[in-house]
Amino acid sequence: MAMLEIEGLNAWYGASHVLHGISLTVEPGEIVALVGRNGAGKTSTIRAVMGLMPKATGSVRFADTELLPLPAHARFGLGLAYVPEERRIVPGLTVRENLQLGLVASDGTIDERQAIDEIARSFPRLKERLDQQGVTMSGGEQQMLAIARAMIARPRMILLDEPSEGIMPILVEEMGVLFRRLRDEGTTLLLVEQNVEWALKLADRAVIIDQGEVVHRSSAAALLADKAIQERYCAV
Ligand SMILES: Nc1ncnc2c1ncn2[C@@H]1O[C@H](COP(=O)(O)OP(=O)(O)OP(=O)(O)O)[C@@H](O)[C@H]1O
Questions:
Q1: Which residue in 15, 19, 103, 113 is deepest, having the highest Cβ count within 10 Å?
Q2: What's the gap in Å between 212 CA and the centre of ligand 1?
Q3: What is the pLDDT of residues 141-178, one digit of tens each?
Q4: Which atom of ligand 1 lies nearest, measured to the CA of 192?
Q5: What is the dihedral of CA 64, 65, 66, 67, to 10 degrees?
Q6: Which residues of 21-53 are buried (b: 16+ CB within 10 A; e: fewer)?
Protein backbone atom coordinates (compact mmCIF):
# COMPACT_ATOMS: atom_id res chain seq x y z
CA MET A 1 0.00 0.00 0.00
CA ALA A 2 1.33 3.44 -0.93
CA MET A 3 1.87 5.89 1.92
CA LEU A 4 0.46 8.72 -0.18
CA GLU A 5 -1.52 8.28 -3.35
CA ILE A 6 -2.71 11.34 -5.23
CA GLU A 7 -5.02 10.70 -8.17
CA GLY A 8 -6.57 13.19 -10.55
CA LEU A 9 -6.08 16.10 -8.18
CA ASN A 10 -7.52 19.41 -9.33
CA ALA A 11 -7.34 22.58 -7.25
CA TRP A 12 -8.36 26.19 -7.47
CA TYR A 13 -7.68 29.58 -5.91
CA GLY A 14 -11.07 31.20 -6.47
CA ALA A 15 -11.69 31.05 -10.22
CA SER A 16 -8.05 30.27 -10.95
CA HIS A 17 -7.65 26.56 -11.76
CA VAL A 18 -4.04 25.78 -10.77
CA LEU A 19 -3.79 21.95 -10.58
CA HIS A 20 -4.99 19.89 -13.52
CA GLY A 21 -5.22 16.20 -12.66
CA ILE A 22 -2.05 15.62 -10.64
CA SER A 23 -1.33 11.93 -9.94
CA LEU A 24 1.63 10.72 -7.92
CA THR A 25 2.44 8.14 -5.30
CA VAL A 26 4.93 8.04 -2.47
CA GLU A 27 5.81 4.60 -1.10
CA PRO A 28 6.51 4.00 2.60
CA GLY A 29 10.06 4.92 3.58
CA GLU A 30 11.06 6.74 0.43
CA ILE A 31 12.02 10.31 -0.33
CA VAL A 32 10.26 11.77 -3.35
CA ALA A 33 11.48 15.09 -4.77
CA LEU A 34 8.77 17.26 -6.30
CA VAL A 35 10.39 19.81 -8.58
CA GLY A 36 9.50 22.29 -11.33
CA ARG A 37 9.81 25.99 -11.90
CA ASN A 38 8.23 28.81 -9.86
CA GLY A 39 4.47 28.79 -10.04
CA ALA A 40 4.32 25.23 -11.45
CA GLY A 41 1.98 24.07 -8.67
CA LYS A 42 4.28 22.31 -6.18
CA THR A 43 3.16 24.28 -3.14
CA SER A 44 -0.49 23.98 -4.18
CA THR A 45 -0.09 20.20 -4.41
CA ILE A 46 1.16 19.86 -0.86
CA ARG A 47 -1.34 22.41 0.40
CA ALA A 48 -4.10 20.29 -1.15
CA VAL A 49 -2.75 17.22 0.68
CA MET A 50 -2.83 19.17 3.95
CA GLY A 51 -6.34 20.55 3.37
CA LEU A 52 -5.20 24.12 2.83
CA MET A 53 -6.46 24.81 -0.70
CA PRO A 54 -9.75 26.72 -1.02
CA LYS A 55 -11.06 24.03 -3.41
CA ALA A 56 -9.69 20.62 -4.39
CA THR A 57 -11.22 17.60 -6.15
CA GLY A 58 -9.96 14.15 -7.06
CA SER A 59 -8.47 11.74 -4.57
CA VAL A 60 -5.70 11.99 -1.99
CA ARG A 61 -5.22 8.85 0.08
CA PHE A 62 -2.84 8.71 3.02
CA ALA A 63 -2.23 5.17 4.28
CA ASP A 64 -5.58 4.30 2.66
CA THR A 65 -7.59 7.10 4.31
CA GLU A 66 -9.23 9.49 1.85
CA LEU A 67 -8.13 12.96 2.95
CA LEU A 68 -10.07 15.38 0.77
CA PRO A 69 -13.29 15.28 2.83
CA LEU A 70 -11.34 15.80 6.08
CA PRO A 71 -10.63 19.22 7.60
CA ALA A 72 -6.94 20.19 7.87
CA HIS A 73 -6.66 19.54 11.62
CA ALA A 74 -7.91 15.95 11.24
CA ARG A 75 -5.13 15.25 8.73
CA PHE A 76 -2.37 16.14 11.18
CA GLY A 77 -3.80 13.60 13.63
CA LEU A 78 -3.31 10.81 11.07
CA GLY A 79 0.46 11.09 11.20
CA LEU A 80 1.08 13.64 8.48
CA ALA A 81 3.30 16.63 9.19
CA TYR A 82 3.97 19.73 7.12
CA VAL A 83 6.83 22.22 7.09
CA PRO A 84 5.57 25.21 5.10
CA GLU A 85 7.85 27.54 3.17
CA GLU A 86 7.22 30.34 5.66
CA ARG A 87 8.47 28.65 8.81
CA ARG A 88 5.90 30.03 11.25
CA ILE A 89 8.15 30.14 14.29
CA VAL A 90 5.87 31.73 16.85
CA PRO A 91 7.12 35.09 18.17
CA GLY A 92 7.17 35.37 21.94
CA LEU A 93 7.75 31.63 22.39
CA THR A 94 11.02 29.92 23.23
CA VAL A 95 12.50 27.13 21.15
CA ARG A 96 11.16 24.62 23.70
CA GLU A 97 7.66 26.13 23.54
CA ASN A 98 7.72 26.07 19.74
CA LEU A 99 8.63 22.38 19.93
CA GLN A 100 5.78 21.75 22.38
CA LEU A 101 3.37 23.09 19.75
CA GLY A 102 4.35 20.11 17.59
CA LEU A 103 2.91 17.83 20.27
CA VAL A 104 -0.50 19.49 20.54
CA ALA A 105 -2.11 17.16 17.99
CA SER A 106 -0.81 14.07 19.81
CA ASP A 107 -3.22 14.64 22.72
CA GLY A 108 -0.78 13.83 25.50
CA THR A 109 0.08 10.35 24.16
CA ILE A 110 3.75 11.30 23.84
CA ASP A 111 5.91 12.05 26.88
CA GLU A 112 6.86 15.68 26.36
CA ARG A 113 10.17 15.73 28.19
CA GLN A 114 11.36 12.56 26.52
CA ALA A 115 10.31 13.83 23.08
CA ILE A 116 12.18 17.10 23.57
CA ASP A 117 15.29 15.25 24.83
CA GLU A 118 15.19 13.05 21.77
CA ILE A 119 14.81 15.99 19.39
CA ALA A 120 17.61 17.85 21.16
CA ARG A 121 19.91 14.90 20.46
CA SER A 122 19.15 15.14 16.74
CA PHE A 123 19.53 18.92 16.68
CA PRO A 124 22.53 19.97 18.79
CA ARG A 125 22.08 23.57 17.63
CA LEU A 126 18.60 23.66 19.14
CA LYS A 127 19.68 21.91 22.31
CA GLU A 128 21.87 24.87 23.25
CA ARG A 129 19.01 27.27 22.61
CA LEU A 130 15.95 25.62 24.14
CA ASP A 131 15.18 28.60 26.36
CA GLN A 132 15.94 31.26 23.77
CA GLN A 133 13.20 33.03 21.81
CA GLY A 134 12.76 31.07 18.57
CA VAL A 135 12.61 34.12 16.34
CA THR A 136 16.00 35.41 17.54
CA MET A 137 17.78 32.53 15.80
CA SER A 138 19.22 32.64 12.28
CA GLY A 139 17.02 31.71 9.33
CA GLY A 140 18.71 28.33 9.04
CA GLU A 141 18.26 27.56 12.72
CA GLN A 142 14.60 28.56 12.49
CA GLN A 143 14.21 26.18 9.59
CA MET A 144 15.76 23.41 11.68
CA LEU A 145 13.30 24.30 14.46
CA ALA A 146 10.38 24.10 12.03
CA ILE A 147 11.57 20.65 10.92
CA ALA A 148 12.14 19.52 14.51
CA ARG A 149 8.62 20.69 15.42
CA ALA A 150 7.21 18.63 12.54
CA MET A 151 9.23 15.56 13.60
CA ILE A 152 8.54 15.66 17.32
CA ALA A 153 5.22 13.82 17.21
CA ARG A 154 6.91 11.07 15.13
CA PRO A 155 4.77 11.42 12.01
CA ARG A 156 4.74 8.68 9.40
CA MET A 157 5.20 11.23 6.64
CA ILE A 158 6.55 14.78 6.41
CA LEU A 159 5.87 17.19 3.54
CA LEU A 160 8.52 19.88 3.25
CA ASP A 161 8.24 23.03 1.13
CA GLU A 162 11.66 24.31 0.04
CA PRO A 163 13.46 23.56 3.30
CA SER A 164 16.88 24.56 1.91
CA GLU A 165 15.78 28.00 0.72
CA GLY A 166 18.00 30.82 1.94
CA ILE A 167 20.04 28.59 4.22
CA MET A 168 23.81 28.40 4.66
CA PRO A 169 25.42 25.48 2.78
CA ILE A 170 26.66 23.89 6.01
CA LEU A 171 23.09 23.70 7.37
CA VAL A 172 21.77 22.42 4.05
CA GLU A 173 24.30 19.62 4.32
CA GLU A 174 23.22 18.84 7.89
CA MET A 175 19.63 18.81 6.73
CA GLY A 176 20.48 16.28 4.03
CA VAL A 177 22.08 13.98 6.60
CA LEU A 178 19.00 14.35 8.80
CA PHE A 179 16.56 13.56 5.95
CA ARG A 180 18.53 10.42 5.00
CA ARG A 181 18.50 9.29 8.60
CA LEU A 182 14.76 9.92 8.90
CA ARG A 183 14.20 7.92 5.74
CA ASP A 184 16.40 5.09 6.99
CA GLU A 185 14.36 5.02 10.19
CA GLY A 186 11.20 4.59 8.12
CA THR A 187 9.78 8.12 7.81
CA THR A 188 8.41 8.96 4.37
CA LEU A 189 9.31 12.36 2.89
CA LEU A 190 7.89 14.47 0.08
CA LEU A 191 10.35 17.23 -0.64
CA VAL A 192 9.47 20.29 -2.74
CA GLU A 193 12.73 21.96 -3.79
CA GLN A 194 14.22 24.63 -6.03
CA ASN A 195 17.67 23.29 -5.17
CA VAL A 196 17.13 20.52 -7.69
CA GLU A 197 20.55 18.93 -7.62
CA TRP A 198 20.59 18.66 -3.83
CA ALA A 199 17.05 17.26 -3.77
CA LEU A 200 17.79 14.69 -6.47
CA LYS A 201 20.91 13.47 -4.70
CA LEU A 202 18.83 12.87 -1.57
CA ALA A 203 15.69 11.46 -3.12
CA ASP A 204 14.78 8.00 -4.33
CA ARG A 205 12.32 9.17 -6.97
CA ALA A 206 11.48 12.43 -8.70
CA VAL A 207 8.31 14.01 -10.07
CA ILE A 208 8.26 17.19 -12.16
CA ILE A 209 5.22 19.46 -12.25
CA ASP A 210 4.73 22.06 -14.95
CA GLN A 211 1.70 24.34 -15.28
CA GLY A 212 -0.27 22.25 -12.82
CA GLU A 213 0.44 18.90 -14.50
CA VAL A 214 2.87 16.07 -13.90
CA VAL A 215 5.25 16.03 -16.87
CA HIS A 216 7.92 13.61 -15.68
CA ARG A 217 8.38 10.71 -13.26
CA SER A 218 11.57 8.72 -12.84
CA SER A 219 14.16 7.63 -10.35
CA ALA A 220 15.95 10.61 -8.84
CA ALA A 221 19.23 9.30 -10.27
CA ALA A 222 17.81 9.22 -13.81
CA LEU A 223 16.60 12.81 -13.59
CA LEU A 224 19.89 13.91 -12.04
CA ALA A 225 21.67 12.55 -15.12
CA ASP A 226 19.19 14.12 -17.57
CA LYS A 227 20.29 17.74 -17.87
CA ALA A 228 17.99 18.35 -20.86
CA ILE A 229 14.81 17.62 -18.91
CA GLN A 230 16.08 19.59 -15.93
CA GLU A 231 16.77 22.59 -18.21
CA ARG A 232 13.39 22.30 -19.86
CA TYR A 233 11.26 22.13 -16.71
CA CYS A 234 13.33 23.25 -13.76
CA ALA A 235 15.43 26.18 -15.01
CA VAL A 236 14.60 29.37 -13.13
N1 LIG B 1 -2.93 32.61 -2.83
C2 LIG B 1 -3.01 32.50 -4.16
N3 LIG B 1 -4.02 33.06 -4.85
C4 LIG B 1 -4.11 32.94 -6.19
N5 LIG B 1 -3.23 32.27 -6.96
C6 LIG B 1 -2.19 31.70 -6.34
C7 LIG B 1 -2.01 31.78 -4.92
N8 LIG B 1 -0.88 31.11 -4.60
C9 LIG B 1 -0.38 30.63 -5.76
N10 LIG B 1 -1.16 30.98 -6.80
C11 LIG B 1 -0.96 30.61 -8.22
O12 LIG B 1 -1.08 29.19 -8.32
C13 LIG B 1 -0.14 28.67 -9.27
C14 LIG B 1 0.67 27.57 -8.61
O15 LIG B 1 1.46 28.15 -7.56
P16 LIG B 1 2.29 27.30 -6.52
O17 LIG B 1 2.67 28.21 -5.40
O18 LIG B 1 1.59 26.05 -6.21
O19 LIG B 1 3.57 26.97 -7.38
P20 LIG B 1 4.99 26.44 -6.93
O21 LIG B 1 5.37 25.45 -7.95
O22 LIG B 1 4.97 26.00 -5.54
O23 LIG B 1 5.88 27.70 -7.08
P24 LIG B 1 6.74 28.49 -6.00
O25 LIG B 1 8.05 27.80 -6.03
O26 LIG B 1 6.76 29.85 -6.58
O27 LIG B 1 6.03 28.39 -4.69
C28 LIG B 1 0.68 29.85 -9.75
O29 LIG B 1 0.15 30.24 -10.99
C30 LIG B 1 0.45 30.90 -8.69
O31 LIG B 1 0.52 32.18 -9.24
A1: 19
A2: 10
A3: 999 999 999 999 899 999 999 999 989 999 899 999 99
A4: 22
A5: -130
A6: ebebbbeebbbbbbbbbeebbbbbbbbbbbbeb
